[in-house]
Design brief:
This protein has 13 helices and 24 strands. The protein is of the alpha+beta class. The longest helix is centred in the middle third of the chain and has 24 residues.
């Protein structure tokens, strides 16, 4: 059972892909963080800079956008080295542009006149005239077969196409639907360009809810439920124009309980942010995400259900292979990933676990590559980074521990305080030292470490007073010279 749940609010859209009652993927888009990349504008040349071979283009935003000569569309059949920018653009000229980089700080957006429109399986290049194939698609024979199929499907409509990696197994009907959708989208852009003044937005990149219909809806999808009537009606109109099959599956959720609460999605999200993932058998995973890579450790925990120890390990690793593949999708973990399955003595157990792991990863729309077991018994794999991980979207490093996941003990902080007082006493000559720290540190200095505090006070010949500050975290302290 495959369903898509859409929870919409003015500030945030969340999409959950649910299979047989279990959350498989979560997508989040926030209104204030939605960028401009992919948007198409009718721009007006504000200034041409021959010395920089660039131009400033007014596209109706607060700051003028930037267009370099390298991002100007070259007439088909000509080389890249054509006329300089001052001979191709003039002030006041109108031209269709696309944002390729969002504004950053004081810099405006970066533009290109080489328009591209992404579909589900194809990228449309309306100003070009060739068929391109993603380098990641199969063998030379597969690529040539796809090229021949596309040439037959494209017909006389014009424009170029690039086949994305997920087009490798697409049927002719699916490719034809994508071609029709992309050409209709471009026709709408051209119509708006002829009717609207310079500085107008001609096409905004699809919202998350619209991308759900385009990219995530499949034949096995039974229902797409959304909890906002206005957005439901908009999606209905979008589907009717571009993808009627997906529109037929749209349903407006009218229940009293929030849609994510009803299906247990909120609990799944909370668990997806946790470091530990419990398995049904009693085993568990430990997932640690770092800058360079992600490590996943498999543990048996309390699982003792098998007849012998080897069988227990094998069954735990098989269950972990399912859970890890799901967690990679749910948390959107990318880059280098190291999986430490529990050591298996029998080679056939290793191969069975590896085969099951690859089978589960094959369901992932994001490209993955898996190596076999290394000499250390680790499985190395990579998963393409497509967007920020769930943890980076929903959370930030802890202000107390700085993201380390642990803080110093109260006793360690007490000794830091005593060393700092001794250091200050050698440089300054105050009447008194006052320590301001968290209540737990102050309590320990007054109780278990009181003798050491008294010895230090006698050694430096100065009184030491203590003050508890509830707002301080356990590692913070201040030493005030009075």
């Amino acid at each position: 059972m495959h369903e898509i749940l859409i929870n919409w609010s003015p500030q945030e859209t969340r999409v959950a892909l649910v299979e047989n009652g279990a959350l498989q993927e979560l997508h989040i888009e926030r209104a204030l963080e939605r960028g401009l990349v992919g948007n198409v504008y009718l721009g007006k040349v504000a200034r041409v800079l021959p010395g920089m071979q660039s131009a400033f283009i007014d596209i109706g935003l607060e700051r003028a956008a930037f267009l370099h000569v390298a991002d100007l569309q070259t007439p088909f059949g000509q080389g890249r080295d054509v006329q300089p920018i001052e001979k191709r653009l003039f002030e006041g000229q109108s031209l269709v542009t696309q944002v390729i980089k969002d504004p950053i700080g004081s810099k405006g957006a970066r533009l290109s006149t080489q328009i591209s429109i992404a579909g589900r399986m194809l990228v449309f290049l309306p100003q070009d005239d060739h068929i391109g194939i993603s380098q990641k698609i199969g063998s030379a024979e597969t690529r040539e077969a796809l090229r021949c199929r596309m040439l037959a499907l494209v017909g006389e409509g014009g424009g170029g196409f690039i086949l994305r990696t997920n087009a490798e197994d697409a049927s002719d009907a699916e490719l034809a639907d994508d071609i029709a959708y992309l050409r209709k989208t471009w026709a709408d852009v051209r119509q708006r360009a002829n009717a609207l003044p310079a500085g107008s937005l001609l096409r905004q990149d699809l919202s998350l809810a619209e991308r759900v219909l385009r990219d995530l809806t499949a034949d096995e999808t039974q229902a797409i439920r959304i909890d906002a009537k206005l957005q439901h009606d908009r999606l209905k109109d979008f589907a009717a124009a571009y993808m009627p099959a997906a529109g037929a599956k749209l349903q407006l959720y009218r229940g009293e309980r929030p849609i994510f609460d009803l299906f247990g999605i909120e609990d799944d999200i909370a668990r997806a942010l946790a470091r530990r993932v419990d398995l049904k058998s009693g085993g568990y995973l430990i997932i640690d995400q770092t800058e360079a890579l992600t490590t996943i450790d498999v543990n048996t925990g309390g699982f003792v259900g098998a007849r012998n120890f080897d069988d227990t390990i094998f069954r735990t690793n098989l269950e972990a292979a399912h859970a890890i593949a799901r967690q990679l999708r749910l948390r959107n973990l990318g880059g280098i990933i190291i999986v430490d399955f529990i050591d298996m003595v029998q080679g056939e157990h290793q191969q069975a676990v590896l085969a099951e792991f690859r089978k589960q990863l094959a369901r992932d729309r994001t490209r993955t590559t898996v190596s076999g077991f290394t000499q250390l018994g680790l499985v190395e794999m990579t998963r393409k980074r497509t967007r920020e991980s769930l943890a980076h979207i929903l959370s930030e490093p802890c202000p107390t521990c700085g993201g380390q996941g642990q803080v110093k003990t109260a006793r360690s902080v007490c000794y830091d305080v005593l060393r700092e007082i001794l250091r200050e006493a050698r440089q300054f000559d105050p009447k008194e030292f006052r320590v301001i720290a968290s209540p737990t540190v102050v309590e320990m200095l007054l109780d278990e470490e009181s003798a050491h505090l008294a010895d230090l006070s006698a050694f430096i010949g100065k009184p030491i007073s203590l003050a508890a500050e509830r707002g301080m975290n356990p590692q913070q302290y201040d030493i005030v010279l009075l």
